[in-house]
Write a structure and sequence with these properties.
12 helices; 61% helix; 4 strands; 7% strand
Length: 388
């Protein structure tokens, strides 16, 4: 950590170099310099003498920021704009999800009943692909293997199965398979059939797959086919109910999205209007002048042509109306013609900070002497030692 004298010297040197770089005369200090890079205008606000309790760098900058659009209203609009943009993105995602669900939710369940009922009327060979044919051929081999359990019955089953494969309908084939499964399940000699009912169910599932539907066959009722149709009808009803719910949710989300977009457009328009008005009426230079007048009351402004680091800039010197006699006023930087410095230039190399108390170091004897008196006065004032 730097000791106070070292910090004081470093701060003094930094301020001195800044003042020298911007060609700011000693008589204009203490003050604060604002630069408007867009308008290429520099505004120097001189510190009021004597100091005023309601005037500070914080209050000055706060006033300037308000005029530049960082006011409460502009900040509220910017925050609302961010929130609306986030809400719009969220609602857009939710809309896409609901559109997908509403248009495609449960298609298999809503169409399954019609597909199955239509397929029952078709000839079996219309849907006979390699996988389904392999299942029927496997069933025939299984029947041949268990023929000893009931030779006559098995022979009839195999003959009927062959006829269905050549010219039967899907409905006839399914009913024949269900009858086989029911008979095997009802017998007490399950081991003689070697899981024939399981093989039949595999053929039924393969038939469903060939038709384009999917469900589990149930043998709890006496008519499994009717149970399957009721199951598909129940699925269809539930799928329609779910889709109706999704459609209603989609309608509500679209309404919220529309209202959110409308509000976002309105906020953007208002924010653009406020910003445009600020840019047109309140540049940094203009905002600084307004802020200085509000805090200091009556002010006096002189316009100069910048030099040194302010070459090419218009320099506005703002100071409170002097309380002293005109002969005691600080000399203007302008010479020759009014409000210019084309005829004269200030080259003072050292400027001190007004808020530093204690001893002050100067690098220029003449300039230092006058600044020393200023800082000594400020130091006494800050410590309460100034003579009344």
């Amino acid at each position: 950590m730097h000791r106070f004298p070292e910090h004081h010297v470093a701060w003094t040197e930094a301020v001195s170099r800044c003042a020298a770089y911007f060609d700011v005369p000693e008589s204009w200090l203490p003050g604060v310099l604002f630069l408007d890079f867009i308008e290429r205008t520099a505004v120097l606000v001189r510190w009021p003498e004597p100091e005023r309790p309601d005037f500070s760098l914080y209050h000055l900058c706060k006033q300037i920021a308000g005029d530049l659009g960082h006011s409460r209203r502009a900040a509220e609009l910017r925050e609302e704009k961010k929130q609306l943009e986030r809400e719009t993105e969220r609602l857009e995602r939710e809309t896409r999800w609901l559109e997908r669900d509403a248009h495609g939710y449960g298609d298999d369940d809503t169409k399954g009943l019609e597909i199955f009922q239509a397929g029952l009327k078709d000839r079996l060979d219309k849907h006979m692909g390699p996988e389904l044919r392999a299942q029927y051929e496997g069933l025939d081999r299984h029947l041949e293997m268990v023929s000893a359990a009931d030779p006559e019955l098995v022979s009839n089953w195999r003959a009927r199965l062959a006829a269905l494969l050549s010219s039967g309908t899907v409905d006839e084939s399914i009913r024949h398979l269900l009858a086989m499964a029911w008979h095997v399940r009802a017998t007490h000699r399950q081991h003689d059939w070697r899981r024939l009912s399981t093989k039949v169910v595999k053929v039924l599932d393969a038939t469903n797959e060939a038709l384009g539907v999917s469900f589990q066959w149930s043998f709890k009722s006496e008519d499994p086919l009717a149970s399957a149709i009721r199951l598909l009808a129940d699925r269809k009803e539930k799928a329609h109910a779910k889709r109706d719910t999704k459609v209603q949710q989609l309608r509500e989300v679209r309404d919220r999205l529309r209202h959110t977009r409308n509000r976002l457009d309105a906020v953007r328009v208002e924010l653009d209007r406020v910003t445009s008005q600020i840019e047109a009426e309140d540049s940094i230079a203009a905002a600084t002048q307004k802020a200085a007048r509000r805090l200091m009351g009556a002010t006096e402004t002189e316009t100069h042509q910048g030099s040194g680091g302010l070459e090419g800039y218009r320099l506005l010197d703002i100071r409170p109306l002097p309380e002293a006699e005109p002969s005691q006023q600080a000399p203007s930087k302008a010479t020759g013609s009014a409000n210019t410095i084309s005829g004269g230039t200030f080259h003072g190399p050292t400027v001190q900070a007004g808020d530093i108390s204690g001893g002050v170091h100067f690098h220029h004897p003449t300039l230092g002497a006058s600044l020393h008196r200023i800082w000594q006065k400020l130091g006494r004032r800050s410590t309460g030692d100034e003579e009344q």
